[in-house]
Amino acid sequence: MDAKSPAAADPLSRPSPPLTAAAEPSRTVLALRRAGIAVAGVGVAALTAAACVLSFEDLRALALAGRAPADLAYLYPAAFDALLVVTMIGVLLLRGGWWPVRLQAGVVLTLLFAGAAAAEVATAIHCAFRIYEWFSL
Predict the structure, then answer these.
(1) pLDDT attached to residue 10
(2) Dihedral pair phi/psi, residue 73, rounded to 5°
(3) Going by C-beta distance under 8 Å and a sequence separation of 6 or more, which residues neighbour residue 4?
(4) Are 51 and 116 in contact (CB under 8 A)?
(5) Shortest CA distance to 83 belongs to which of 43, 48, 45?
(6) With bands split at pLDDT 50, 70 and 90, how would you rate the model's confidence at 7?
């Protein structure tokens, strides 16, 4: 049997030394990291709020064009906005997660923004939706 002493072993097989005070991040680094996370959170909240406010009437008009009851049409953009908020929070929380899960959250977020943008453009160019005709064939 070929055995080596711990001193002769390569660095990968040696146990790592215990963390010292020099290896731990300083208070300044931790404060900056927390401040960065807080600023990113505020930015995401502002982006989500702007998307919700700017797309509400157009998504409501889209729901009415799809023959949603007029008294319940406000629920469609509210549900969309809730899904947008959950997705934005999910993207933030998954930043250190497994890459396929992060990719899935990113795709959902992109599709939500694309849907809101499509509703905005369709309203801006006065496009008439005939969604109900597709399903009545």
Answers:
(1) 59
(2) -65, -25
(3) none
(4) yes
(5) 48
(6) low
Whether the Cβ atoms of residue 62 and residue 129 lie closer than 8 Å to each other: yes
**Predicted confidence band of residue 20 (pLDDT cuts 50, 70, 90):** low
Q: What is the pLDDT of residue 32?
A: 92
Tens digits of per-residue pLDDT, 113-136? 888 788 778 777 877 666 555 555
Separation CA 110–CA 112 (nearest Å):
5
* CA angle in degrees (0–180, nearest 5) for 52-48-106: 115
CA atoms within a 13 Å half-sphere pointing along the CA-CB vector of 112: 22
Query: Is the backbone of residue 67 left (phi > 0), alpha (psi -120 to 50) or beta?
Result: left
Work out the widest C-alpha separation in the chain, in whole angstroms: 83
Tokens (6 digits) for 123? 């309203």
